[in-house]
Write a structure and sequence with these properties.
The mean pLDDT is 87. Helices cover 16% and strands 41% of the residues. β3 and β4 form a beta hairpin. It has one domain. The strands form 3 sheets. It has a 5-stranded antiparallel beta sheet with strand order 8-7-10-11-12, with no helix packed on it. A 4-stranded antiparallel beta sheet has the order 1-2-3-4, covered by helices on one side. It has 3 helices and 12 strands, in the order ααβββββββββαβββ. It is α+β, with helices and mostly antiparallel strands.
């Protein structure tokens, strides 16, 4: 008879903890946690994901905005997503649909995800120094770069080339004295102002 009340209390406590955890955004997998992130629009579509030993980074697109959500493992088997980064919509030949730099308690990552709609672009390279990565383009398919380190976006220095190695676009701010976050995008090389 004594076991029944203890079992009921334990069951009730487990149910309450589960409800509280679910309401707080904890989920059983990284993608579900990323979708539960309050900054990820409900109509978003998963474009790409990059998994790390500590969690994952998920790139979504929606009619509202592209969003990158970072999910981390917590308490062994639970996941949560408390970090996200959004991009501005641009109707350009190359669109950045996801980017994030993460550095928390030894968990480090950087990703850059682009979508190319220009058949003249053959490949894109990005990354600092020895960690530079080259990827060939497939029109309309996401192209995701990732590093297991925290790298500032301006140090990635992404560039797009044609099949002959001619530089066509680079990802940067415009060369003006006034900088706005929405101006960070892909610019044709011919638009670079030279002194």
């Amino acid at each position: 008879m004594n076991k029944f009340p203890k079992l009921s209390i334990a069951t009730a406590a487990l149910i309450i903890l589960s409800i509280f955890g679910y309401a707080s955004g904890y989920r059983l997998d990284g993608l579900s946690a990323a979708r539960a992130n309050t900054l990820v629009p409900k109509d978003s579509v998963l474009i790409d994901e990059v998994m790390f030993s500590w969690g994952g980074i998920y790139v979504f697109d929606s009619s509202e905005k592209p969003v990158t959500a970072i999910s981390t493992k917590k308490f062994g088997l639970l996941w949560t997503s408390k970090s996200s980064v959004w991009q501005f919509h641009h109707n350009d030949s190359i669109k950045t649909i996801g980017s994030a730099t993460f550095n928390e308690s030894g968990k480090k990552a950087t990703i850059l995800c682009v979508l190319v709609n220009d058949s003249n672009i053959s490949y894109i390279e990005a990354g600092p120094g020895e960690n530079r990565i080259i990827k060939h383009v497939q029109i309309g398919e996401p192209l995701t770069f990732s590093w297991e380190e925290s790298i500032q976006t301006d140090r990635l220095s992404p560039k797009a080339f044609d099949k002959n190695g001619k530089l066509l676009f680079d990802y940067r701010y415009p060369e003006t004295s006034f900088i706005r976050q929405e101006d960070l995008k892909w610019y044709p090389v011919k638009d670079i102002l030279r002194p």
